[in-house]
C-alpha cells in the first residue's frame, strides 16, 4: 500500500474511534451538563491548539512540506487556541464568554475545513512523510477537534431543556408511596 493511501485511510479512520468514544462517554456527559459547563469543557480542549505551531518548526516537519499548508494550519490553530483561552478567561462575563465560544468554534472549524481543502489541492497525501513528528495531528487530534466543533455548534443552536430538580421528584415519589 502506498504512503498516500495509508495517510488517506488513516485520515478517514481517525474519526471512527473518536466517534465511538464520544457517543459512549462524552456526548452523554455533555448533554447532562449546563450549557456553559459543556462549552467550557470544549474550550479547554481547544485551548491546546497552539500546538499547531509545530508545523512551522524545521526538524519537526520536513522542509518539503508545502508552506502554504503549514502556515495556514499553524496560524489557524494558534488563533483558535487563543480565542478558546479568551473564552475561558471571560467565563464570568457571560456575553464575552459566549462571543468567544462562537468565535473560536467558527475559526477552528474554518481552519480545519480549509486545511482539508489545502491538503487535497496540494496533494498532501504524497507529502505525508514530511509531516514528521506532526503526523499524528491530522490523524489523531484533528478528528476530535472537528467532532467537538460540531458538537459545540449543535449545543449552541439547540433549545435549552428546562432544568429538572431530581429532589422534587424523589420527594413526590416518597410521599406518594406512603399514601394508601
Record the SSE blueprint:
Elements: H1 3-13, H2 15-32, H3 35-46, H4 67-89, H5 94-121, H6 136-157, H7 166-178
Helix pairs in contact: 1-6, 2-6, 3-4, 3-5, 3-6, 4-5, 5-6
Order of helices and strands: HHHHHHH
Mean pLDDT, all residues: 90
Helical percent range?
Answer: over 70%
Question: Main beta sheet: strand number and arrangement?
Answer: none
SS summary, helix count = 7
Number of strands: 0
**SS-derived structural category:** mainly alpha
Roughly how many Å apart are the termini? 73 Å
Low-confidence segments: none
Overall form: globular
Strand content: under 5%
Give a concise summary:
The chain contains 7 helices and no strands. The chain is mainly α.
Written description of the protein model:
- There is one protein chain.
- By secondary structure, the protein is mainly α.
- The chain has a domain of 118 residues.
- It is built from seven helices and no strands.
- Helix 3 packs antiparallel against helix 6 and helix 4 runs antiparallel to helix 5.
- The longest helix has 28 residues.
- It is globular and about 60 Å long.
- The termini are far apart.
Task: Provide the descriptors you would attach to this structure in a database record.
180 residues; mainly alpha; 7 helices
Amino acid at each position: 500500500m502506498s504512503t498516500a493511501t495509508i495517510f488517506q485511510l488513516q485520515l478517514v479512520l481517525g474519526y471512527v474511534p473518536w466517534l465511538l468514544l464520544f457517543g459512549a462517554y462524552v456526548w452523554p456527559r455533555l448533554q447532562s451538563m449546563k450549557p456553559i459547563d459543556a462549552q467550557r469543557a470544549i474550550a479547554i480542549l481547544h485551548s491546546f491548539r497552539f500546538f499547531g505551531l509545530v508545523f512551522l518548526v524545521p526538524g519537526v516537519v520536513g522542509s518539503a512540506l508545502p508552506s502554504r499548508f503549514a502556515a495556514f494550519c499553524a496560524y489557524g490553530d494558534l488563533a483558535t487556541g487563543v480565542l478558546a483561552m479568551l473564552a475561558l478567561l471571560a467565563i464570568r462575563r457571560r456575553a464575552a464568554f459566549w462571543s468567544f465560544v462562537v468565535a473560536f468554534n467558527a475559526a477552528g472549524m474554518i481552519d480545519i475545513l480549509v486545511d482539508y481543502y489545502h491538503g487535497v489541492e496540494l496533494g498532501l497525501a504524497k507529502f505525508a512523510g514530511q509531516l514528521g513528528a506532526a503526523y499524528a495531528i491530522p490523524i489523531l487530534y484533528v478528528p476530535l477537534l472537528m467532532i467537538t466543533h460540531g458538537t459545540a455548534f449543535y449545543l449552541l443552536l439547540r433549545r435549552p431543556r428546562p432544568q429538572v430538580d431530581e429532589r422534587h421528584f424523589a420527594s413526590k415519589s416518597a410521599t406518594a408511596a406512603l399514601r394508601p
